[in-house]
């Protein structure tokens, strides 16, 4: 069990060590967003002023498509890193829960031990109270033993409270781990949805470029047909 | 220990006790507890009629109680340290990872919707056009519209998942803060318990000493109400617990505590007769590399036990030098601090300070 925990922690450390800086990845993703947005928002307007067979027409669409790919790649990098970091946190929480659950069991046993100590000192106290009747010099240790008994009782009560507090804390940790799992599941869903969206963006720009090629082809059909007809007419 | 005082004597000695016992787990203190209970047996009942045998038993029980308390404290301390370490876990220290919700361009849905409308309008405009080229153009637009519709659906689906992750992250963060507080509070409770145990440890030591003294005094009628019997010991010995000094002591093989020159081994034997002490110390130390200092120390000492907790005697080394030795009881019954000094001699060790464990 110890080996599993050690390996888990080691793996976690490696995972954390390999996770790129999220802040810089986020910054890059935002930069790529801005770049894409600045050329994507007026794509149709710009294309309207260029003839379909003008090389700038296809180049304009390709430029936006590449900016989109760069944006989506940066976002993918960010999401991947965020997920790795999040999953590492979950692993830490699970190792912690495992440790705390075992500790809670130990604390319950220690509480029982304190109970036994209390019983023993109470028994000693009773016995000494009897002995004082025969030997008066025992009165002073008897008083001291009573004080010790009171201290042990106080500690037993504190031990009881600590065990309850730890049980409650462990329950909170269990709930926390459930929420970690829920967050991770949400992150996985987000990644899947993102990949689907990424494919759709690429599909859209491919369709847009295909339309541009069609527009050019139609224009070329018109310009190639006209001289033939005029030749016929001649 | 004068020199150790600045290091936190009690903490050091407790660490030492823990090291000597080599175990800090529950099993270790349970074992020590069983030894204590066995040594204790029916001491309080037997004290009513007991004599020297019960006095010796009280000393043994006192030593066992001290050992148990030291082990128990060491275990608790170890638990507290582990708990503090666990609280350092990153999930308790910093906010958890929550992917940014700002990375989906705000303009994207509007842009897609605009393109979709344009495509739909254009398709509608050329719906009835029979021109082959126009039909090809309309088909290309149809494909673009399908792609845009799929993209629009994907963007909406993505937005939902981003919102779900954000909500899950917020719920997680709330729970994290609560759990961190709960564990922080739980770990903070260990410190008062440790203090309580230390008080109990001192009280047990005091109790066994008083019990031993009480058994030694001549039986007397029950004291009048509100009068505390303060009967002195019947012998001439000072009110010190001799088992804290008398016996054979050794430097532990591992986790030994020292100040100044490090001992390699030390054996100390102390005898007592009629309040008079005599003893022998024999040890080998580790002088600095290249030093010509003789590593071996051997001396005898003697003197009367005083009424103070710390005992000081004069010593004479095997080569005739004079000096003093201080013996200071540790918090555990089986620990004794030794501090000796001799007159300066060439290539001879003249002072050392370390903690011994009872054999």
Look at the structure and give the CATH class of the domain at 239-359 in chain B.
Mainly Beta
Q: Most extensive interface, residues per chain? A: A-B, 96 and 97 residues
Q: Describe the biggest sheet of chain A?
A: none
Helix content of chain B: 40-55%
Q: Specify the number of helices of chain A.
A: 5
CATH architecture verdict of the domain at 239-359 in chain B: Beta Barrel
Number of continuous helical runs of chain B: 9
Number of E strands of chain B: 9
Distance linking N and C termini of chain B: 21 Å
Helix fraction of chain A?
over 70%
CATH superfamily of the domain at 239-359 in chain B: Calycin beta-barrel core domain
Detail the poorly predicted runs of chain A.
1-17, 225-234
Sequence of strands across the biggest β-sheet of chain B: 1-3-4-5-6-7-8-9
Portion in strands of chain B: 15-25%
Rounded Rg of chain B: 39 Å
The structure class of chain A reads mainly alpha
- Helices and strands of chain B, in N-to-C order? HHHHHHHHHEEEEEEEEE
Q: Beta-strand percentage of chain A?
A: under 5%
Overall shape of chain A: it is rod-shaped
- Name the average pLDDT of chain A: 85
Task: Write down the domain tally of chain A.
Answer: 1
Task: Note down, in words, how this protein is organized.
The complex is a heterodimer of chains A (234) and B (359). With 234 residues, chain A is mainly alpha-helical. Chain A has one domain (2-222). Chain A is 92% helix and 0% strand. Chain A has helices at 2-18, 22-40, 43-48, 55-132, 139-233. The longest helix of chain A is centred in the last third of the chain and has 95 residues, at 139-233. Chain B is elongated and about 130 Å long. Among the domains of chain B are: 91-188; 239-359, Calycin beta-barrel core domain (Lipocalin). By secondary structure, chain B is of the alpha+beta class. Chain B has nine helices and nine strands. Helix content of chain B is 50%, strand content 19%. In chain B, helix 3 (26-40) packs antiparallel against helix 5, helix 5 (52-87) packs antiparallel against helix 9 (190-216) and helix 7 runs antiparallel to helix 8. Chains A and B meet through helix 2, helix 4 and helix 5 of A and helix 3, helix 4, helix 5, helix 7 and helix 8 of B.
């Amino acid at each position: 069990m110890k080996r599993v925990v050690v390996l888990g922690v080691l793996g976690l450390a490696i995972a954390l060590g390999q996770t790129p800086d999220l802040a810089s990845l986020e910054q890059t993703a935002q930069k790529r967003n801005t770049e894409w947005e600045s050329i994507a928002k007026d794509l149709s307007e710009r294309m309207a002023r260029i003839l379909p067979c003008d090389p700038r027409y296809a180049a304009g669409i390709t430029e936006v498509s590449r900016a989109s790919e760069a944006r989506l790649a940066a976002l993918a990098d960010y999401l991947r890193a965020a997920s790795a970091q999040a999953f590492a946190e979950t692993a830490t929480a699970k190792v912690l829960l495992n440790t705390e659950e075992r500790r809670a069991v130990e604390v319950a046993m220690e509480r029982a031990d304190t109970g036994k100590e209390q019983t023993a000192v109470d028994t000693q106290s009773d016995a000494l109270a009897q002995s004082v009747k025969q030997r008066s010099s025992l009165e002073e240790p008897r008083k001291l033993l009573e004080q010790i008994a009171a201290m042990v009782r106080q500690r037993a009560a504190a031990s009881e409270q600590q065990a309850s507090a730890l049980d409650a804390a462990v329950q909170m940790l269990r709930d926390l781990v459930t929420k970690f799992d829920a967050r991770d599941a949400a992150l996985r869903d987000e990644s899947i949805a993102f990949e689907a969206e990424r494919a759709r963006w690429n599909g859209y720009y491919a369709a847009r470029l295909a339309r541009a090629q069609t527009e050019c082809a139609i224009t070329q059909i018109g310009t190639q047909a006209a001289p033939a007809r005029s030749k016929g007419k001649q | 220990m004068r020199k150790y005082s600045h290091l936190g004597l009690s903490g050091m000695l407790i660490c030492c006790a823990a090291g000597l016992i080599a175990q800090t787990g529950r099993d270790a203190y349970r074992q020590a507890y069983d030894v204590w209970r066995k040594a204790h047996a029916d001491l309080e009942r037997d004290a009513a009629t007991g004599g020297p045998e019960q006095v010796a038993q009280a000393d043994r029980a006192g030593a066992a109680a001290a050992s148990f308390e030291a082990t128990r404290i060491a275990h608790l301390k170890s638990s507290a340290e582990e708990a503090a370490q666990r609280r350092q876990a990153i999930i308790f220290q910093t906010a958890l990872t929550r992917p940014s919700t700002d990375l989906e361009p705000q303009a994207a849905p509007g842009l897609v919707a605009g393109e979709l409308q344009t495509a739909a309008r254009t398709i509608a405009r050329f719906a009835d056009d029979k021109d082959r080229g126009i039909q090809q153009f309309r088909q290309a637009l149809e494909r673009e519209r399908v792609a845009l519709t799929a993209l629009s659906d994907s963007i909406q689906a993505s937005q939902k998942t981003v919102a779900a992750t954000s909500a899950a992250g917020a719920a997680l963060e709330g729970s994290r803060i609560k759990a961190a507080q709960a564990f922080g509070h739980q770990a903070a409770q260990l410190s008062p318990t440790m203090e309580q145990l230390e008080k109990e440890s001192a009280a047990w030591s005091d109790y066994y000493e008083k019990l031993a003294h009480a058994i030694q005094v001549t039986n007397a009628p029950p004291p009048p109400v509100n009068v505390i019997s303060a009967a002195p010991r019947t012998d001439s010995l000072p009110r010190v617990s001799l088992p804290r000094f008398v016996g054979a002591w050794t430097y532990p093989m591992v986790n030994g505590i020292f100040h100044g020159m490090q001992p390699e081994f030390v054996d100390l034997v102390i005898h007592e007769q009629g309040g008079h002490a005599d003893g022998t110390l024999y040890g080998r130390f580790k002088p600095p590399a290249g030093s010509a200092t003789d590593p071996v120390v051997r001396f005898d000492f003697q003197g009367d036990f005083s009424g103070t907790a710390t005992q000081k005697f004069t010593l004479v080394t095997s080569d005739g030098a004079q000096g003093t030795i201080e013996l200071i009881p540790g918090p555990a019954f089986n620990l004794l601090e030794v501090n000796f000094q001799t007159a300066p001699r060439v290539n001879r060790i003249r002072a050392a300070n370390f903690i011994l464990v009872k054999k």
